[in-house]
Amino acid sequence: MKKPLLTLIAAAVLSACSPASDNASENATESGAETSATQQQDQALDYPQTRRDDTVDTYFGQDVADPFRWLEDDRSDETAAWVEAQNELTFDYLGQIDFRDQVRERLADAWNYERLGAPFEEGDYTYFYRNDGLQNHFVVYRQQGDGEPEVFLDPNEFSEDGTTSLAGLSFSPDGSLAAYATSAGGSDWRTIYIIDAETKEPIGEPLVDVKFSGISWRENDGIYYSKYDSPDGSRLSQLTDQHKLYYHELNTSQADDPVIFGGSDEQKHRYVGGRVTDDGRFLAITAANTTSGNKLFVMDLQADEPELVTVVGHEDSNTGLLTNDGDYLLLQTNLDAPNNRLVRVNASEPDSANWQDLIAEEDEVLSVSRGAGYIFASYMVDAVSKVKQFSMDGEEIREIDLPGVGSAGGFSGKDDADKIYFSFTNYITPPSTFSLDPESGDAELYFAAETTFDPENYVSEQVFYTSKDGTRIPMIISYRKDLQRDGSNPTMLYGYGGFNVSLTPSFSVTNAVWMDLGGIYAVPNIRGGGEYGQAWHQAGIRTSKQNVFDDFIAAAEYLVEEDYTSADKLALRGGSNGGLLVGAVMTQRPDLAKVALPAVGVLDMLRYHTFTAGAGWAYDYGTAEQSEEMFQYLHGYSPLHNVEEGVNYPATMITTADHDDRVVPAHSFKFAAELQSKDGGENPQLIRIDVNAGHGAGMPTSMIIDQAADVLSFTLYNMGYEKLD
User: Distance (Å, rounded) from C-alpha 644 to C-alpha 225?
Assistant: First the structure.
């Protein structure tokens, strides 16, 4: 039997309270190895001194110290110096890991394969996205008929260092014009450029201060887009809370763009978006103050005097316009349907009392798309895909035969398309694209990536385990077929658990390399997500948030109990809300795992809502000001406020970026400072801060590979591995 590619050279007793520490000691004794010099250096890291001040906030009569508040100032020289000192320490530490370069080489080799997006028609051209392997960004190509493809947009040329990315592309109805958005340094702030699609010559000046925005054309005359007023303070951390929808007519000044929605106190919302239906008839406007629930309005653009008509005037449901069928609107909604339904209503009387089910709610969560004159209904069955095809009248035609068990996406296109494309993937299958004949239901392989990763050598199994309160939780565990369940396997446990986000199976080069090295990758579908509809989400928000942490803890315990791994070989990983998950679990159960990897995490639960659009997360979290009960609950699990003096925390590498204006890096900065000042063990407490990068979207391939190499190397090294075969 082929052995895993990791070689255990030395493994000291990693945690006195770990149930697997005896096994680690036994392995070290059998190898006759002693603790290495680099591991001894780990035990005496000289952390940069972080100044403490006397900042104190008072919540309902309780004083809460915030000694590292000054790190919230992302424009100060002192913060910049702190970042530089922390990075110097972290990269010096990572530089001691002998196999770090090998891991990076393996990642680069594994990443180096062609990737191709599904084609789409605009005007006289067929467009598609392509990456030849290690390009920092996908390139947009186009071709006419059987002619040679040509480059339409190459984001790799947007900036010398690859940190400016393409963040959106939209064509006018006849395909003669295009508008595209760029993001610099990973920021959520965008700049929109409008060009002649044939000549690629610019039209007018770029539009600035655009954020959380789509690009939707009104015929060939102009575009709808959303923006905030430019902040007076830091663009990366200043609160932004009044979003506005604008209309920009071509060849006019942005300063003259009229506000379509959001300009008054009555229409003030944190998130506003607008989209024109494909026939140009209706403008649909969504307005919301949190990440769950929205109002919906429509405007008949072909009316003599277009007026705003309210479809849903409250934020108690998620309701969006799929398309229109003449005078009728087709709406996907969870109003009175926690798992979603598709309804039909006349645009002249769109009140919910007049809605008629087109596709009724079922036991599985529904999401809809449309193309080629049909509706495609995608259902989640224990987090994997099932897809059905319907007529525009809601008649079920067939269930689409998918190539396996995993995640299928796409199933959209123009109404006159003769083919529909969809993608398929899972944790051990690189994405493939299929073309579907909507008349016959036959699907053919359009593109399959040629990678060195052979899915036949791996297994991806779904198990169910029981959480603390008895709730049954699904988890998918992926690994090499030759792996032995003897409790010794390095394991990455990844979670999210929030915002109605569903973790469905998808392929990752980083995870493929991890498994190729002999590791296990496990993903539980914990509460707070959307895998089982609104009820699953609600069970993990506000004063039920502890369910999320308990579900994750139970997943870790299951993996140990079933001999997949041990506490000494377990790493916890998650990003954004998942970074909160890791931070909360590592502070509640520091004995649970050897390594903790909170990425771009929400770690200060008392102040998260004071930065950028963070107040919009209050639906999931609640805020410290809303009630004493909510303050006490947040304070009770906030990772920043629950780091205790003298505790032996897991080996931790926090990752963040200086341009993250979604979850500002101050969360990570302050958490790192707390860990370094209070940790009572010998495990490293480090922070890795990417420069000129953001929350993750648009990060160039080179930076992704560098970060992944550091994360995997740090993880394995702190599990006791010192070299690779």
Answer: 46
Provide the 3-class DSSP secondary structure of residue 473. Answer: strand
Token pair of 641, please? 């406020």
Residue 269 CA to residue 251 CA, distance in Å, equals 29
Do residues 720 and 103 make contact, with C-beta atoms less than 8 angstroms apart?
no
In which residue are the tokens 């995993």 written?
A: 406
Report whether pLDDT(219) > 60: yes
Contact (Cβ atoms closer than 8 angstroms) between residue 479 and residue 519: yes
Indicate if the pLDDT at residue 8 is higher than 50: no
Contact 540, 547 (CB under 8 A): yes
3-state secondary structure 6-69: EEECCCCCCCCCCCCHHHHHHHHHHHCCCCCHHHHHHCCCCCCCCCCCCCEEEECCEEEECCCH
Task: Indicate the pTM of the whole model.
Answer: 0.91
Active-site residue (options: 15, 21, 502, 576): 576
**Mapping DSSP to helix (H, G, I), strand (E, B) and coil, where does residue 264 land?**
coil
Read off the tokens for 112: 């180096």
Residue pair 504/533 in contact by the 8 Å Cβ criterion? no
Beta partners for 296?
286, 312
Task: Kindly report the backbone phi and psi dihedral angles of residue 5, in degrees, each rounded to the nearest multiple of 5, phi listed first.
Answer: -80, -5
Element (DSSP H or E) covering residue 510: helix 509-516
Q: How far apart are CA 99 and CA 108, in angstroms?
A: 14
For tokens 């369940």, name the residue.
Answer: 485
pLDDT at 480 over 80: yes
Helices (H), 436-588: 509-516, 534-538, 546-561, 577-588
What are the Cα distances from residue 324, in Å, to 283, 330, 331, 346, 477? 11, 6, 9, 9, 42
**Which pLDDT band holds residue 234 (cuts at 50, 70, 90)?**
low
Tallying the residues shown for the chain, one arrives at 725
Burial grade of 1 (CB within 10 A; 0-12, 13-18, 19 or more): exposed
Say how far apart CA 273 and CA 577 lie, in whole Å.
23
Residues 6+ apart with CB under 8 A from 575: 496, 598, 599, 600, 601, 696
Could you tell me which residues are beta bridge partners of residue 522? 477, 493
Residue 25 forms beta bridges with which residues?
A: none
C-alpha 318/C-alpha 315 separation (Å) is 7
Q: Return the sign of the alpha-carbon dihedral for residues 607, 610, 615, 617.
A: negative
CA separation for the pair 276, 151 (Å, rounded): 28
Rounded to whole angstroms, the Cα distance separating 690 from 161 reads 13
pLDDT tens digits along 75-117: 899 999 999 999 999 999 999 999 999 999 999 999 999 999 9
User: What is the SS3 assignment for 707?
Assistant: helix
Active site annotation includes 659: no
Q: Is the CB of residue 8 less than 8 Å from the CB of residue 31? A: yes
Contact call for residues 404 and 426 (beta carbons, < 8 A)? yes
677: annotated active-site residue: no
Residue type, 725: D
| Structure token pair of residue 385 | 């895909």
- According to DSSP, the residues that pair with 127 across neighbouring strands are 120, 142
DSSP label at residue 130: E
What CA–CA distance (Å, rounded) separates 515 from 533? Answer: 31
* Span 566-593, average pLDDT: 98
Tell me the per-residue pLDDT of 632-643, one tens digit each, with 9 for 90 and over: 999 999 999 999
Nearest to 635 by CA among 70, 72, 73, 65: 65
CA terminus-to-terminus distance, the chain: 15
Question: 240-270 burial by CB neighbour count: b if 16+ within 10 A, else e?
Answer: bbebbbbbbeeeeebeebeebbbeeeebebb
Cα angle at 259 between 347 and 272, to 5 degrees? Answer: 65
User: How far from 644 is each of 41, 590, 637, CA to CA, in Å?
Assistant: 24, 11, 12
Given a contact cutoff of 8 angstroms between Cβ atoms, the answer to whether 268 and 220 are in contact is no
